[in-house]
Amino acid sequence: MIFLPPKFYAVAAVFLFICSHTTCNLGARTPNVVIIFADDMGYGDMSSNGHPTIRTPHLDRIAYEGQKWSNFYSAASVCTPSRAGLLTGRYPIRNGMCSAVHQVLFPESTGGLPNSEITIADLLSSAGYSTAMVGKWHLGHLPEFLPTKHGFDEWFGIPYSNDMDLDRPTVTTLNGGKLGLWHTGKHWDEPMSEYWRVPLMQGDQIIKRSPDQSLLTKMYTKRSVDFITNNADKPFFLYLAHSMPHVPLFRSENFVGTSTAGIYGDVIEEIDWSVGQIIQTLESLEISEHTLVVFTSDNGPWLQFRTQGGSAGLLRGGKGTTWEGGMREPAIFWWPQSIEPKIVHGIGSTLDLMATICSLANIDLPAKIEDSVDLSNTLLLGQDSPRNEMIYYRHQTIEAIRLGAYKGHFDREASDRGEIKLKAIYNIDMDPAEAFNLWERYPDIAVALRSRYLEHRRSIIPVVDQLARRK
Amino acid sequence: MIFLPPKFYAVAAVFLFICSHTTCNLGARTPNVVIIFADDMGYGDMSSNGHPTIRTPHLDRIAYEGQKWSNFYSAASVCTPSRAGLLTGRYPIRNGMCSAVHQVLFPESTGGLPNSEITIADLLSSAGYSTAMVGKWHLGHLPEFLPTKHGFDEWFGIPYSNDMDLDRPTVTTLNGGKLGLWHTGKHWDEPMSEYWRVPLMQGDQIIKRSPDQSLLTKMYTKRSVDFITNNADKPFFLYLAHSMPHVPLFRSENFVGTSTAGIYGDVIEEIDWSVGQIIQTLESLEISEHTLVVFTSDNGPWLQFRTQGGSAGLLRGGKGTTWEGGMREPAIFWWPQSIEPKIVHGIGSTLDLMATICSLANIDLPAKIEDSVDLSNTLLLGQDSPRNEMIYYRHQTIEAIRLGAYKGHFDREASDRGEIKLKAIYNIDMDPAEAFNLWERYPDIAVALRSRYLEHRRSIIPVVDQLARRK
């Protein structure tokens, strides 16, 4: 007799329950997976996280019916490394997707996610899933790095951020930055898609340069709905990575002025509409009870864009920082009849989607995926999250480590000299805004943080810096 | 034939609907009213407003089933004037309940809410309601000012704040303040009830000095449940004003350490439990469909108390300020079958409870209650809120005015000299954190704000400063 771990029985019981309550004919059918990933949306940008003027009824609904995670982290505070972490379940330092020199990949970059890396799509594809990516990739735009080389049967979207390939001279804006062509002196000026020559692609073909960005969310949604509809009778994986609400902000005609929170609010409301379309499609096809839907964001709000950036709510900082506002994200897991409705305060990360999905799909997790924690017992059984830590990188430097309730911030310059210098400890369960540095009170925590820092660094094997590769 | 306003038919239709769906035998029975009022709880202190570690499942539930208002204001940013505003529907400047010299009433005060004032309890009592107050009063502790002189059939609670009647020398605390005896050098020291000689009262009798404050929330809840149970077959009004989470923080044994957010989290979780007890009582008595439940707080979080103060979420400032964090409150309206479930972004205020309750109870609103706006069409029909402004007083000075999306802050010193000097304008729908002063862009708004300031001030008739009266 083989002894299986208790989780096996738990998961099996859930599948039996599903099969006995639905029209499922496939025995222990593994769930479909839909990951919806917003770009630069902040922790505070949904109504169910307290935003007072942005309406997000669809997100609120799935948050209430499913699990809302309030301590859920992206793998990095900027785009490229965050996305690499989500798809591979590995801190980007391990695969060259965070850099000493650049924050993200740019149109002139020649690097990308190495083909030696295993993605969620690779594993699900091998397990017989239909796989599609819709939306922003940003893990390398040369042919050898595209989504179709990383386990996706199909891809429709843009290869990097929607503010790249800028075709006009930059100007200094109200925001004081040079990115903001869409703020050219008039207030809340509308951006024009033709300012950016970002390509819209399908597979490895460019369909159009300077596509009408106001249609991106709508087009992505239609593609996603079509993919789900066409695959309703077999297992599928959809990775829908919205280009919005990354600046420049665009929304379709239907959402112009729907929000009193301004264009940023309009854009979030269109993403919320899109979530509603996905949910409605799953329900009308009667496959919602076979489908895990995950909603989260790649990093915190881009606060420099003022009212065109989002809100991290009560959290400190935003995109590009290792304050909580930079990496703690809105996060919802929805799977009717399977997920225990709950607000989860335990720690989770986009890094964990890999191990969790493998567990739900009965796929062995490859050994090299060392940073991904299986959260399925929390999702299905309401158990405490097994993740107890988070490591916050900026570029290639560890700026902070969270162990349980405690988060230590390290001095960046000291780290770059090879020293470990702790400069703050916050109890972020009691003080989520990181306002009260209590480092002198916790000598034991300080020891544990240093020790974890060293242990983690010892596990890192140097690799090629993919973001430093240029033409 | 008499033509009645459309609302009459709408409200009548709702009552008919209720009566046809329940065991209601009283024809157009007016609803019971339960107002639950927290003390110093912040906008961000419930999970459904984004708090990441405080669990508030009962508040989240009624927020989701009822209306959560995200632009709902207390009448002032400190205790006494806020409570006067709630009960009378009038800005406290009109009845002497805000002062040039003191923020609130103290044990040595001899003033209180004048008996010429009309309270919600007075009107509901005259209309045949049983009326009870449970909890903190703070509108005058001399016999002539007590709740039983202001329309309440009964009262059980404390006459002012739980940090008053301090019986020990104050010490400088970790917080740097002198109020914080409960922080006496050891970290997160537990406070002791006997440090404060605050009286626990019933009617006009003192039952006990220095009551065990850890039992306050529990005792208030039991009294409230008993009152509801004893009045289940007739109309009733319950005003439950918790003493918590005002510092010093206390919670019963059942809630020690329930929250990872520390003692403040424990305290909020006990208040949430208390809300659950009220809801459960209404449901088990089958009167929830005859009962309007309102939950809100008297002012923003007391930020000076650091991790023992709450969170205003994404809002700026806290208690004692006219930033949004000082006066914008968590606010929920719940009345199954009658209230349209919705998140309401329109403006509302505790000042409006008077006119709204009068409307629902078919009571004519007395003419002098000029600051109270009837919100019943928003509650029952989902219409836009008819309130379009808010005036933010601190002491007797107008520090800010909100007109629609725009909030102007006035220079306090200039106001005290009789000048009107606008120093900032924020679009708080787009910028709820009041981060981006756009005053130079809105000359028309500036004119409107000054004009509203003058018009409002002209409506103020000088009265006795009740908070300045001392032995």
CATH homologous superfamily identity of the largest domain in chain A: Alkaline Phosphatase, subunit A
What fraction strand of chain A?
Answer: 15-25%
Number of domains of chain A: 2
CATH architecture of the largest domain in chain A: 3-Layer(aba) Sandwich
Overall CATH class of the largest domain in chain A: Alpha Beta
Count of DSSP strands of chain A:
16
What is the global morphology of chain A? globular
Q: Going across the major beta sheet of chain A, what is the strand order?
A: 7-6-5-4-8-1-9-10-2-11
Major sheet description of chain A: 10 strands, mixed
Overall pLDDT metric of chain A: 91
Computed structural class of chain A: alpha/beta
End-to-end separation of chain A in angstroms reads 59 Å
* Largest protein-protein interface: A-B, 42 and 42 residues
Low-confidence stretches of chain A: 1-27, 171-188
Oligomeric state of the chains present here: homodimer
Alpha-carbon Rg of chain A, integer: 21 Å
Provide the CATH topology of the largest domain in chain A. Answer: Alkaline Phosphatase, subunit A
Element order, helices and strands of chain A?
HEHEEHHEEEEHEHEHEEEHHEEEHEH
Folded structure, characterized:
The structure is a homodimer of 471-residue chains. Chain A has 471 residues and is an alpha/beta fold. Chain A has helices at residues 6-21, 57-65, 79-88, 120-126, 216-230, 263-284, 324-327, 353-360, 376-381, 412-416, 443-458; strands at 32-38, 67-69, 72-73, 130-135, 154-157, 199-202, 205-209, 236-241, 291-297, 332-334, 342-344, 348-349, 389-394, 397-403, 406-410, 422-427. Chain A has 2 domains: 30-162 and 198-387, Alkaline Phosphatase, subunit A (3-Layer(aba) Sandwich), CATH 3.40.720; 392-468, Arylsulfatase, C-terminal domain, CATH 3.30.1120. Chain A has 11 helices and 16 strands. In chain A, the strands form 3 sheets. Chain A has a 10-stranded mixed beta sheet with strand order 7-6-5-4-8-1-9-10-2-11, sandwiched between helices. Chain A has a 4-stranded antiparallel beta sheet with strand order 13-14-15-16. In chain A, α5 (216-230) packs parallel to α6. The interface between A and B is large, with 42 and 42 residues.
